[in-house]
Design goal:
Structural class of chain A: alpha+beta
Distance between the termini of chain B: 23 Å
Oligomer: heterodimer
Number of domains of chain A: 4
Shape of chain B: flat
Largest sheet of chain A: 6 strands, antiparallel
Structural class of chain B: mainly alpha
Chain lengths: 407, 271
Amino acid sequence: MRFGMLLLGLVCVACVLGSALPQGKTLEWYLEHYSPRKAALIYGLNLSDVFHSTWFLILTAVLCCNLVLCTLLHLPGLLRRMRDAADSDAVAKARPVATLTGVTQPDQLFERLHMGRPKALEADGRQVRFASRNRLGLWGGTVCHLGILLLILGYVLGQTTKLEYTVYGLPGQTKPVGDTGYTLTIDDFQMGLQDSGTPDQFTSRVTIHNPSGSASERAEISVNHPGSLLGFSATQNSMGNAAKLTVLVHGELYQETVLCQGEYLQLANTPLAIFFDGYEADAPFDDGSVHDVYDYTIYDSSSGRSASDYQLEGEAAMTTSVYEIRFSEPQHYTLLQLKKDRFLWLAMLGALTVLVGLILALYLQPKQLRALEEPDGTWTLYAYSRKGGALFADQVKKQAADSRQSD
Amino acid sequence: MLQAENVLFTITMLLYFAAMILYFLFVVSKKDKLAAVASLVQAVGLVLHTGALICRGIGAGRLPLTNYYEFATGFAWGLSLVSLVFIRKYRFPMLGVFAAPLIFLIIGYAAMQNREVKDLMPALRSNWLGFHVSTVIVAYGSFGVSFVLGAVFLLRERMKDGSFWDKHIPSREKLDLLAYRSVSLGLLFLSFTIITGAIWAERAWGSYWSWDPKETWSLITWITYTMYLHFRVTRGWHGKQAAVFAVVGFICVMFTYIGVNTLLPGLHSYA
């Protein structure tokens, strides 16, 4: 148990590190933001990707083994406690949380305490009334452990076997789904707006085709409303801006394409590439005016660095003695995530099992009531509870007092 | 409706403040009646607070649980509700003496937030929002009560037998059990929160667990309270040790709530 708690403590420490340190950055990034020693430590100990690091996986595996062993080792004791909780003689050996003497109507108290109809027994020639409730609660911890194991198993198996692809594009485009051979055609993409102009919903209508082209499936996908596409679960993850880029050389059309934000166009037979940084509609300017703005960067691969960052207002063009660069026709592209996680159900089952275990452990508190007939004809009542004893004792005393009053 | 919400919110704040003062006077004057009046004022405050939340919900056309202000006022509502339930159910008015300042502090924090009603981003326009946030409000409220009970337990050790405090605060054993009950309630609801959040994230982003700082800190809080329960059951950690754990657990809750939002931006940076 101490070891289990130590492991949980270590998981907490790992979580603190994983949330406090920026994750998934390059060594250069850490060197820029931390001292060389700290950066080396972060990178060396895999603190740059805590939750996928080998040591975190080992920690999780050891925790799972500990849970399994803990559950198995406690099983015989648990079964014995289950049996004993229903056995009047075994219960009598425990220390009661409350004892009431001079009880005249024990059955009434059993009823008032919602203990059900007591069993009529005999011990050493004396009458005994006995009832046991919520024995199932003893299983709470075990069920919870089982749930956590299923949850971790479902998550780890899901992470290691899942297929996950991001597909983005404009209506009318057909894009490959990673290296699966499947293709996705974006039939339509709509962005609903609220009165304030903020997005209300993003909706994509798409068709997926299998590698041989023999099967296809259509679906409408929007945020919070994923769709199913030939076994893939598709979610509307995001959207972005796109625009048509036209490049003229000496006044003649040289290249024309539609670029999504983050994409670039390599100018044929030149070391130049135009990177589309983004588009902003109605961007406010210092003079109070608003304009549509296209941001882009020209890279010169011969020098290996960006030549310059530019902003174009509306349909304006950037013109040099050779080139004319113009952006137009702003539009939105859709970004979808396609995933196959065959173990999602296992993680879900684990989560539900944890919930059931918690309810059993925390809200079904095993309790027993045992009444023993005294030689003078009155009864002595003993109340037992493994957890919540003081509250159960209060409850017993209150009901006994109420019972006396009503008599 | 939003004007009505403004008025109700202000009155609620004043009532919580009045309840805090009345609880304080109860301690100073040692008159039990004042504690009863304070609980009543807090209950009226809770009713008006509920009204304020309903008005905001109607005015905004959605559940009022989506931004810093709404969550803070919801947190104060949850704490007020759970503390009143404990006060009534376990006949423990002294709990209000310690809970009322915390409620006032949190609603004061809410008052300092931007109260403008803004349109929701598409990811937040989901029925899961209601389940996810309402369960966390009850969880945080319960953990708030367990924190108060833990603190009361630690203070109780310094109280003389037969004193006013001694008479009005339940036995250590009962305090310990009440803290256990509130942690149990909080842990169950926090589990609901994490699970509903995971289901929602799967539908909205296609990933039920992303190690987002808020998710990670919710897990840390969950583990902390799980350790509290384990130590109680297996190591017999009752009394002082358990009380210290309840206080530490609430520090995790507050970091998950405020610290993560301000220091560790992520997918939950809107709430």
